[in-house]
Amino acid sequence: MLIEGILSVLNMQTLLLITGGTLLGIIIGAIPGLTVTMGVALFLPVTFAMSPVDGLSLLMGLYIGGTSGGLISAILLKIPGTPSSIATTFDGHPMAAQGQAGKALSVSILSSFFGGVFSLGVLFLIAPKLAEVALQFGPYEYFAIALFSLTLVAGLSGGSLARGLGAAAIGLVIAFVGMAPITAFPRFTFGWAELDGGIALLPALIGLFAVSQVLEEAESRDSSQAPATANFNLRQMGFSLRAGFGHFGNWLRSSVIGTAIGILPGLGGSVCNLLAYGAAKKYSKHPEKFGTGVTEGLVASESSNNASTGGALVPLMTLGIPGDNTAAILLAGFMIHGITPGPMLFETQGLLVYGIFTALVIANLVMVVGLFSFMRGFVRLLSVPKHILLPLIMMLCVIGAYGINNRLFDVGCMLLFGLIGWLMKKASIPVTPLLLGFILGPIIEVNLRRGLMSSQGDLMPFITEPISGFVLLGTLIVVAVTAYKEFAKSRNPNNRAVIGS
């Protein structure tokens, strides 16, 4: 199965899709204002007519490239292209200002590659074993895990448990539109035949993450201006082998932090790069130099944020729980191809699983080669004005939404969800819990009803079954701890940083 999975990717068409997706992801990640989540959502309709291997390989390339591309603008402009590159600006831009842009870029690129490869090794070793355990799950366990993942993401997104849970509840209500999963009774359709099949996932997804981002960027006063790029010295790419070995401990520690944070749903690269940077500074022999242009900070930030990519795929592929925002989009990518991520994925789609593993390795290789080869071209792309870029993105959004079912109703849904996402961002309400509620709502409902049918209406098996009861207890603990932290912060605002740590 492993050999067949590798061979399923080693053909010209799939390799070109991986290469193109990775390079496009780098461009999207490098342009400030565009995110890897938006890029994957934007290209999701393109994969609709592809085979699952080709479509998911393209999305994985976008994921890897978009996560890495943020280092370009972070170093050259002091603007993180993605939230996972925030810590890269701390030492990357000072090095570029000192005439060491080439060295800063090369250290960051290689750190990204090694961090990504480390997390893929963990994914390859852990995921099959975890899936074997999850094969014992029934409707009680699936209900508990889906509820746990929804609550966890809602609690960790946006810093407000109430807002996170509120957004998740909105997603659950939207998921109820259409035919009931078992009885096929129409709900909340208001007589509209277009809603009998429910709201399509792709238009909602494109609206929430792509259209809302376009509206937010268009709202800014400098939307017509392009970032000013300095003529940095891009020579002296690379560093000595001895210096590379000197960073081994920092790289290993940061990669472990990134992978572990990636596995925890709701955190991702935006958290782990700051944690890894803090750990590197703590264990450094010269912490006072951090922030002035030292390579240790770049190694920590870039190896950790790319390590989070493989970590986020562990719960996604074994339990169907996305580890971060982009993994939630990848979950939708699986579902539009009729594939449900979870423990059965390794039993029924083993060829696809190992094909994805291979695509991820190739994407990391393409990322390194592409960043080194087309560095100057990527830097020039940073000067594209937003008043040219944003209309092109909006046009692609409309084409993608219309092309799913060839109906304008989906375009209207996309625009409506784009407006909802924009308003939620202005109100500081997290969007990811809404998406997770929309995706996990049917899973929660189906397994709840199946469990009640098998127990003849008795709710106790959801609590008395060991795994289900343990997960539900963990859900209550997470909610209680998050609520306590928020209460403590409101009572003593001066100690927010202490309580959060």
From TrEMBL:
It comes from the Bacteria. Keywords: Membrane, Transmembrane, Transmembrane helix. InterPro entries: DUF112_TM. The chain crosses the membrane at residues 15-44, 56-77, 104-127, 139-159, 165-185, 256-280, 352-372, 384-402, 431-447, 467-484. Residues 15-436 form the DUF112 domain. The keyword Nucleotide-binding does not apply. The keyword Membrane applies. PANTHER family: TRICARBOXYLIC TRANSPORT PROTEIN (PTHR35342:SF5). This is Putative tricarboxylic transport membrane protein. It comes from Phytopseudomonas seleniipraecipitans.
